[in-house]
Design a protein that fits this description.
It is built from eleven helices and twelve strands. With about 450 residues, it is an alpha+beta fold. The protein has two domains: about 200 residues, PAS domain (Beta-Lactamase); about 150 residues, Histidine kinase-like ATPase, C-terminal domain (Heat Shock Protein 90, 2-Layer Sandwich), CATH 3.30.565.10. The strands form three sheets. It has a five-stranded antiparallel sheet with strand order 2-1-5-4-3.
Length: about 450
């Protein structure tokens, strides 16, 4: 079971496609929530700090602060009443309450609350401890959070409640607290607009991040698949190398003996076995050629090479193939311009590639076909060779497998012609592609790096 799980392919792109949106959206939501929460609390806290400074200044300026400590003093009461009228006139204020040191409401914009005490009030406790407390909430008629919320205008659904500690200058002792209920419409609209901008930015950032990562992961997935295919080919080549070394050692010597005997039979007088001897020699040469092809395919090279004149090489390969083409009543032509067309590579390997492709073209065309070897210059860095035949073409279902080692449609083929050509061309930083036309005919294009 464990071995089967280890061999199961891992689809990187599929996993990323469904897992990454979950993670990215979670991160975007968390960031959006944190930023919007910080925005709310920071702006509300800033608003409350301004109100605190205002309250502290007006109470200290005319000495009415002492009323909070001595609420029975009539002079201080009158002075304090004149001062706190400004609290009710502050912008967006719904209600203002002033608590004495004993937690009793000494003054309020709602006269019905004066003289009352609200014991169960954690925010007031913190304010009496010297801390500025800001609390945001909603007004729902009949569902007030606190007893002192009774009587607030239900038409204003959202409010900000600030508990402002009032301190004695110099000593810093808390002598009371001011509670402000405000409906900051402008601030609320600004916060709402800021939250919309934050969430839009978070969403846009998430989409941009996902798109960027998806592009990178898709490219990485394709690269991994290509590397995986190359690794499989490399492993196959290693097996072929070991196999061909053993085959060459154990078969070539008997083949040489068989061929020698057949040659002696041709030269011996008596019974005429010349046809059988020639057939033996032909089959031995075919087997030897297959072994040579295997050894070449399994071999490695540095990829450095020297300089090869493609025009001369194409003419040479065409001349070597003329006899074969003539026997099949086929024609072969070379289309090269004048000049020296040098590329980086090895002449022997390039000759093997071109001869193999010419042989494939001849076998595909049957009798009476035409093959053209065309040399062109697509750009300043490369030279291009097109081997064009007039055969029936390659079926679409076969086209995707033509470069797979040991895949062949020939009854006596090894399936190493095109894979060998691809391996040799790519060894010298070249490229090969195959194009089959629907109306018939195949073009094999070789792209070489110029020397």
């Amino acid at each position: 079971m464990q071995a089967a799980e280890d061999c199961k392919p891992f689809n990187l792109l599929r996993w990323f496609a469904w897992l990454s949106p979950v993670v990215i959206i979670a991160i975007a939501v968390a960031n959006g929530w944190l930023i919007s929460s910080f925005l709310n609390s920071h702006l509300f806290q800033r608003e409350a700090s301004i109100s605190r400074d205002f309250v502290q200044n007006i109470l200290v300026a005319d000495g009415s602060l002492e009323f909070l400590a001595r609420p029975d003093d009539p002079v201080l009461r009158e002075r304090f009443a004149n001062t706190v009228q400004h609290l009710g006139q502050m912008r967006d204020v719904l209600r203002a309450n002033v608590f004495g040191a004993n937690r009793t409401i000494l003054w309020s914009t709602d006269p019905s609350l004066i003289g009352r005490r609200f014991e169960d009030n954690d925010e007031l406790d913190e304010a009496m401890g010297g801390r500025l407390v800001v609390h945001a909430g909603q007004i729902v008629e009949g569902q007030e959070e606190k007893p002192e919320h009774v009587g607030l205008d239900p038409s204003v659904r959202f409010f900000v409640e600030s508990y402002i500690p009032v301190m004695r200058p110099g000593s810093g002792a808390v002598v009371g607290a001011v509670e402000l209920y405000k409906a900051p419409l402008a601030l609320t609209e600004a916060i709402q607009e800021g939250r919309v901008q934050v969430w839009l930015t978070a969403l846009g950032s998430a989409l941009l991040l996902y798109g960027t990562l998806f592009g990178l992961i898709r490219r990485a997935d394709r690269t991994i698949k290509r590397q995986h295919a190359r690794l499989l080919n490399a492993e196959m080549l290693a097996v072929v190398g070991e196999l061909t070394s053993s085959v060459a050692h154990n078969i070539r010597n008997p083949l040489s003996s068989i061929r020698a005997c057949a040659e002696l039979t041709l030269e011996s007088p008596g019974e005429d076995c010349s046809d059988e001897a020639r057939d033996i020699i032909a089959q031995v040469d075919r087997i030897s050629g297959c072994i040579t092809e295997l050894l070449t395919y399994a071999g490695t090279g540095s990829g450095m090479g020297g300089q090869v004149d493609l025009a001369s090489l194409l003419g040479e390969c065409a001349s070597q193939s003329e006899a074969t083409f003539a026997r099949r009543r086929q024609r072969i032509a070379v289309d090269c311009g004048a000049g020296l067309f040098l590329v980086r590579g090895e002449t022997s390997l390039f000759r093997q590639v071109i001869l193999s492709l010419i042989a494939n073209a001849s076998e595909a065309m049957g009798e009476g076909g035409d093959c053209v070897l065309r040399l062109s210059v697509p750009d300043g860095r490369h030279l291009q060779v097109d081997i064009i035949d007039s055969g029936p073409g390659i079926p679409p279902d076969v086209m995707g497998q033509v470069f797979r080692p040991f895949f062949t449609t020939k009854p006596k083929g090894l399936g190493l012609g095109l894979p060998l050509a691809k391996r040799i061309i790519e060894r010298f930083d070249g490229a090969i592609r195959v194009l089959s036309r629907p109306e018939g005919g195949t073009t094999v294009t070789l792209l070489f790096s110029r020397a």
